[in-house]
# Entry
Amino acid sequence: MKTKLQLTSVALLSILLLISGCRRDFDSSKAYSLIPLPYSLQQNAKSFELNNETRIVYSGENIESSAHLLKQFISVVSTLNLEVLSQEEAKDLKNVILLSTVAREEKLGKEGYRMYVDKDKVIVNSNDADGIFYGVQTLRQLFENQMLASEKESLSVPAIRIWDEPRFSYRGMHLDVCRHFFDVEFIKHYLDLMAYYKYNTFHWHLTEDQGWRIEIKKYPKLTEVGAWRTEEDGSRYGGFYTQEEIKEVIAYAKNLHINIIPEIEMPGHSRAALAAYPELSCTGKAQEVPNSWGVFDDIYCAGNEQTFEFIQDVLDEVIALFPGDYIHIGGDEARKARWEVCEKCQARIQNEGLKDEHELQSYFIKRIDAYLTSKGKKLIGWDEILEGGLAQNATVMSWRGTEGGIAAARLGNDVVNTPSSHCYFDHYQADRNYEPKAIGGFTSLKKVYDFEPVPEDLYTEQKALILGAQANVWSEYIETEEYVEYMILPRMLALSEVLWGRKRNQNWDAFQFRLQKHLQWFDKENYRYSKGSYRLEFAVNLDTTSNQKMVEIQSEQYLPTIFYTTNGREPDTTSTRYQGIFPIDSTVKMIRAGVFEKGHLMQASSKIDLLD
Ligand code: ACM
Ligand code: ZN
# Structure
């Protein structure tokens, strides 16, 4: 037994040596600038050159659309116009990109794929159409990056072998279209970016205090009244999506293998609905759609049966439109001031034997949960839905840290983690003095990259309930489409790597290297994006061998040009150029350093005082 084991290890070791021998000089964490980084990427012997005779061949259910997407991408980045054929139509399987759902490998799951390249063909295999779609996205990035690198006329697929599948099944981006409204064309662009970085869930925040954005046929005033507000300067601001437009977006997303979760907020963040139908509030008084941000006292009356009839009618139309499993019902930031003094709400508390207004909120959410469950849908809500008791089938979206997610997982409920610390893309991403106005906070690219969606202090079975994570893009201060782009780029790339990639693969330097290609792509496409922070950090350590202080200057920029002084003066391009860790002696009391591009200081210099 022992000998056999030893022999096996020797055999394994030689195989490993052989493989690594083939891969000399090949750094898979940097290769081809793919984001998110594939699970495993190895170098092969032969690359594949595309020409006008190359065919895209598909075999399997529901993958013809991915074949056509690939054809379209190729026609955009090159002059090639390739024919798409089914496997039955394709006689000769040479000079082809073959997309086929015949992987039959359990480990690849629904969304995984493997790709094999040789000089005659590229083969993308998966178990399911989702996997083929992601293989096509990888090919698309390889093509885009190659065109950026060489600006050559022809395209090739490098000599590689990929085995890839996502870490998380829920990879989400949210967008608030209520504080500011973004039209269908922009939503499609948002979905395109999501698909390129392998996100699969779009959380569409459709109702708010400051605007109701989805047409509901039974309640026309929701959009006639609720979709519009009067701004401080007297102008009218608003907009909404017709049901036809919503269907168009859903179909567009489906083609990109993205599920849309609509959010209909309750019981709070509902003043636009109450402006349209004031009888649904506790006071019944007429009110305006607000034009300022915050959390308001007026919310749906939980004692009034009419409220539930209204919400169920609204949900009926939402359910008829959206094919996915989930409906998001908000649940966050519902003040209880009105409920505390409302006769109907107090009567409900009495009659239902509830302890207080928190249990009344729980009653509200549980009633909606039962309704959604009866319609074959699943409820998802912000972590406040835990207060007063969590509905049995509910999925919790944890935003006030991950504590809500931990509590929900301990109760056996599913969780999506979106802690404001790491996942709020309405926060500043670099030094606020140099950034456009944002809501506050500080969520840098590095911080997003370092995010771990699965909290340590859960048991293994509970960890499995963390479905994934999501970036939230609240639009109080994000008024334009360009600014939305700016806030998500490049942070959504870092989160895509967290969600798709493996922890063991994570390597900030390699990510920054790969990111450069994507920033070039943004430039080419004229996308707005943040260049991040130019602030410098100093690490001062004592080298025990030489007994000398050593200074390292760190930056979020990739290979920045740094000049520094050790005499307290402002650095300029005649100062010392930073070339890596340097020693200082005890006479140095201050170091000042700055990042320079084209001879200009990019941002106020950073400094460190050295006390002793
Ligand atoms: C939230 O940010 N109010 C969910
Ligand atoms: Zn009430």
